[in-house]
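Data deposition worksheet. Section B asks for the primary sequence of the deposited chain exactly as it was used as input, without tags or linkers unless they were present during the calculation. Section C holds the resulting structure in token form. Section D is free text for depositor observations; keep each observation to a single sentence. Incomplete worksheets are returned to the depositor.
Section A, Depositor: J.P.
Section B:
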Amino acid sequence: MVYSFTGGDNGGDEVMAAVMEAAKRNCYQTTGSLYFWAAHLAGPVWGPFASWCCAWLETIGLIAGIGTMAYSSSQVLQIIILLCTGTHKGGGYLASPAVFLGMYTCFTIIWAILNTFALKVIAFIDMISIVWQLIGGSVLILLLPLVASSTQPASFVFTHFELGSESTGISSKPYAIILSVLFSHFSLLGYDTAAHITEETKGADKNGPISILTSIGIVSVYGWCYVLVLTFCIQDFNYLYDANNETGGAYVPAQILYDAFHGRYHNSIGAIFFLIVIWGSFFFGGLSGTTSAARVVYALSRDGGFPLSSMWRKIHPKHKVPANAVWLCAAICIIMGLPIVKVNVVFTAIISICTVGWVGSYGVPILARLVMAEKNFKPGPFYLGKASKPVCFIAFLWICYTCSVFLLPTLYPIDYKDFNYAPVALGLCLSVIMLWWVLDARRWFKGPVRNIGVDQNEKI
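Section C:
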């Protein structure tokens, strides 16, 4: 969201000219911000309100995304420790809720520290992350079916229907289908990531959209293969959710890995190895998620749209990062995790908040494009033509469906331990944000600020 140019004077002039030309043509591929797109697509009248809604939804989604990764990292680490010290049946150590919260908090703090003091290290870690996930994930997908002593037939994987354990309290098949469709939707986010660096990309008006579509395709196929492999390698479906199994019923993929490797080699070393691979993916995801969340908080603060904006838009004088914004995101994330000690569905709630916020933020520019007069839209080289509006309409309907389903209960009967508190948390946050807009912000918030030529200290 912040224009930043490097290189010699001539190179900087060329890049600036390219950015300005793209802006004139309404390609919207530069600043790397959803709410920049929302502001321009909604037009001068509704632009500020659209960007306000989009920016806050994205902020909520990104901060909750840190919590999602912190919880997932803690969950997998808990199982690694359990299998290293035995099993749940063999006296291994299974972390208590208080210890689990400690792990959750530690991961959040580690990511905040790295994002404050080790920006160059993060760039290196990001490269490791790509190799880690591609190689580790590929080996898991290829090796697990070979290790498993037996695999399920295709009829089981593609046609067998199970409601899950009775402990969920869900007995309605249609309700189960509605929930299961969104099984991994929270991980299919960040579609706009490629746009964040398009100002540094040659032929950005074409290569930016192509990069977005390519990344979605790769992640979707890769994730689908991972889920398929795990499903084919299930040894006993009902045993996966048994609270007395070797992994305490705490993490289903861990039990699938344990059953495969213990069944073949009579030890859990292979399962521990692949759990470390999975843990690394969550750790890297949390690190990059903290970076993204802090940048959005910084940008919204730069535009005056965040409480105490002057504090959160400050850049660390030495490390040139929005350190205050980083620690604000970490603090909010830790507060979100506090119910772990008493509530059973914290992960569900955090995932719901993350997905509704992030997916909802995509819905704002899509809706703006739908209602935008065609005469006001000047397409760039990458354009869907007549299919543009139908695709937008389908996408918007899917977003509405997604946001609705993620607010539904996942356990019955509902009590304070099993209640999905995401609707309450989101309802309170969004009510305050909208009230702020109506009473005050609509008078002065103008959307994203174009800051070409600002002092270098304000650039990231």
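Section D:
Residues 386 and 457 are 44 Å apart (CA to CA).
The first helix runs from residue 9 to 24.
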